[in-house]
Amino acid sequence: MSSSAPIAIPVIDIRGYLSDDKSATTSIISSMSSAAQSPGFLQITGHGIAPELTTRLLDHLKAFFALPIEKKTALHRNNSAALRGFEAVGEQSLEKGVMDSKEGFMIGPDWEPENAKNARFLQGPNQWPAETDVVGLRVVMMDYFREMQALSKTMFRYPPTTPEMSEKSRGIGAHTDFGALTLLLQDTIGGLEVFHRPTETWHPVQPVDGAFVVNIGDMLERWTNNKYTSTLHRVISPVSNQYRYSVAFFNEGLLDQMIECIPTCLEPGQKALYEPVKVEQHLRERQAQNNRYRHMRISMRKPDSAFAQYNGAQSGDPVKEVTIIYDVITSTGVAAGKELLEFLLRSDASTKIAEGAQKVIAVVNESGGDVLVL
Ligand SMILES: O=C(O)CCC(=O)C(=O)O
Ligand SMILES: [Fe+2]
């Protein structure tokens, strides 16, 4: 369900931090840390990236996506071991039954083709169109890239849609991001929405002139023991006669970096919720699960941190208890051959049981049948 009720996505001016103003820095850090915990999304202004550069970047992006489809498919991501390049409309579907209506173009740190044999996971050369096709594209992309000092970035174009069609398609289906931190430049069309878990409602991230949207990804959530939140988000297809353009930086860290609970993120008596993992393994697992994984996160309704803390630390032996329940229901194991007690249910029981079963069926249908509901 979409809702226009406001959810506070803070807009934070980081100018004071960049100019080393001590008191401004303290308050900027405290606002950023609180936004990273909830809602896991914020927008930053005063970041020092020249508006001239972002305008030039978006102009070149329009020129790139306006190329004939054959020229774009010649640069398809499938041609690249590092998964760099073009992706057409409809190639992704993050939510069952709704197609993602967007084109993408992924680049990263550029490797000379002759060094490609030394490339590791997701490393390698970019694929560029002929210079004469989009004059200056490569220069502006790499200028922007250096400015942002990021590791990988993807540019998107979302086709416009009609009100009727918008019910059946998404710009990009609901998902969380794999990496540590995403920095997103969006134009003025709008459509990005974040999910407010307690009320299960979607809320727009209004485009703010000159701002970057910042959101926490799964890697940072893991690193901070769930203190920072990797928030579910999506783009609804713009009901407009114009395309929507955006540029996303996925900061994914160095491949050998170990992601293990930052000690200051543990309250006294708390345990680390995740095993340490290297960035490369984390990315490989996410990449392998790709759409399926992203989709699972929606259906499984990530447990809140109170539950996550409890899970695995239950008293007694939960596996044994569940085994006994299974045995009793199936008259096997410890319950084999035993007479079960019968007891009477109140007259409203069958309605209540049917309601519960309907909810379970709805969740299973929504997830494509690949979710275990306990
Ligand atoms: O284009 C956008 O506004 C968001 C894209 C996004 O969420 C993603 O690629 O992970
Ligand atoms: Fe995303």
UniProtKB/TrEMBL annotation:
One of the record's GO molecular function terms: metal ion binding
Lineage top rank: taxon: Eukaryota
InterPro entries in the cross-refs: DIOX_N, IPNS-like_FE2OG_OXY, IPNS-like_sf, Iron_ascorbate_oxido_reductase, Oxoglu/Fe-dep_dioxygenase_dom
Every Fe2OG dioxygenase domain range: 146-253
Keywords assigned by UniProt, alphabetized: Iron, Metal-binding, Oxidoreductase
One GO term (biological process): small molecule biosynthetic process
Pfam hit, one: 2OG-FeII_Oxy
Family: Belongs to the iron/ascorbate-dependent oxidoreductase family.
Official protein name in the record: Mannitol-1-phosphate dehydrogenase
Species this protein is from: Talaromyces pinophilus
